């Protein structure tokens, strides 16, 4: 069973304009709406691959109700804590020259009682064979140790964790040794205290410091460059599968969804990597933050190329 936790969900509004004029009037050519936020995108991907998943976290207001309706229509079970404020809307501005500008709102304030209610729910789900996906930024009112606390709590009951977070929340949580992490290269560089990595091997070495410290598997996504996979002493680099890009927003979440699906289904390393590369490349071809169809992901799998890094 896979439970996704989205502390700060969002309606993703993807808009297309010719070119963004700062301080001027911008006419939108086309707008697309998606239920989003990192964990919700992970649930959308898992569901598209044909597996059941439950989405949890905090939802509020009309936007929250719209997201629940969307999940219901997609057949994704949702079990959110209701909050007083309005779930945020994140606007993604796509210009004709390929430039993407993201405007992410802060989201509603979460009270201590609402946090407690979510933790109780998660504890109730925790057990052997359960994988929790903890991903995304934290809303106001939630302390940066929340992911660390959840990992400690669910590990005690035999559950496993995939973590996709950044900053302080990531730093604190990795100390509790999640089974899987999926930072992108910027997030890992920030953790390692360097401005950027100059190569895949440098990226792999930084991630290895975490697998050496007890994290089970690390996948570092590198956007259009590809991804590095570290598991059981293997360092593998895969260049991104070339596709016609439509929207790269949500590609990281699609990869995390594929990873969670592959992990829960006990796939071997090669199959796991092929699925991650195919699903994330497929997500880039869809509009907004929609995952690719299972058929497209299956068709792309054979195009993943592996390089073992020394
Ligand atoms: N332009 C692209 N073409 C093909 N695949 C891509 C492209 N951009 C991203 N991907 C795939 O999506 C994965 C996740 O993208 P990335 O941007 O690193 O994630 P995040 O959204 O977490 O920052 C990459 O590792 C790659 O496999
Ligand atoms: O929780 P955060 O970091 O604010 O990110 C939320 C945003 O990221 C997304 O989940 C997309 O993330 P990725 O591009 O990293 O896959 C959007 O759906 C959402 O608007």
UniProtKB/TrEMBL annotation:
The keyword Nucleotide-binding applies. Its EC number is 2.7.1.144. Gene3D superfamilies: 3.40.1190.20. Pathway: Carbohydrate metabolism; D-tagatose 6-phosphate degradation; D-glyceraldehyde 3-phosphate and glycerone phosphate from D-tagatose 6-phosphate: step 1/2. The keyword Kinase applies. GO terms for molecular function: 1-phosphofructokinase activity; ATP binding; tagatose-6-phosphate kinase activity. Pfam families: PfkB. Residues 16-293 form the Carbohydrate kinase PfkB domain. Belongs to the carbohydrate kinase PfkB family. LacC subfamily. Belongs to the carbohydrate kinase pfkB family. This is Tagatose-6-phosphate kinase.
């Amino acid at each position: 069973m896979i439970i996704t936790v989205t502390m700060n969900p969002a309606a993703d509004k993807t808009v297309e304009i010719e070119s963004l004029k700062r301080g001027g009037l911008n006419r939108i050519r086309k707008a697309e709406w998606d239920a989003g936020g990192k964990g919700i995108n992970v649930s959308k991907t898992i569901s598209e691959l044909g597996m059941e998943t439950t989405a949890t976290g905090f939802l509020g207001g009309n936007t929250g109700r719209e997201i629940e309706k969307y999940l219901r229509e997609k057949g994704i079970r949702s079990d959110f804590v209701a909050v007083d404020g309005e779930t945020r809307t994140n606007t993604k501005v796509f210009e004709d020259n390929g430039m993407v500008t993201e405007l992410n709102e802060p989201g509603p304030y979460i009270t201590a009682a609402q946090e407690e209610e979510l933790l109780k729910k998660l504890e109730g789900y925790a057990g052997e064979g359960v994988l929790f996906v903890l991903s995304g930024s934290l809303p106001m009112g939630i302390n940066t140790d929340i992911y660390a606390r959840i990992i400690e709590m669910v590990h005690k009951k035999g559950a496993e964790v995939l973590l996709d977070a950044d900053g302080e929340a990531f730093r604190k949580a990795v100390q509790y040794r999640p089974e899987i992490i999926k930072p992108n290269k910027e997030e890992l560089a920030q953790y390692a205290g360097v401005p950027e990595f100059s190569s895949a091997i440098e990226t792999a070495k930084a991630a290895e410091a975490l697998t050496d410290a007890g994290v089970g598997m690390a996948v570092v996504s590198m956007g259009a460059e590809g991804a590095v996979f570290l598991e059981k002493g293997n360092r593998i680099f895969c260049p991104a599968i070339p596709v016609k890009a439509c929207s790269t927003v949500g590609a990281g979440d699609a990869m995390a969804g594929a990873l969670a699906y592959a992990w829960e289904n006990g796939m071997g390393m090669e199959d796991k990597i092929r699925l991650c590369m195919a699903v994330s490349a497929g997500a880039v071809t869809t509009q907004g933050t929609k995952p690719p169809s299972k058929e497209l992901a299956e068709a792309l799998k054979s195009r993943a190329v592996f390089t073992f890094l020394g």
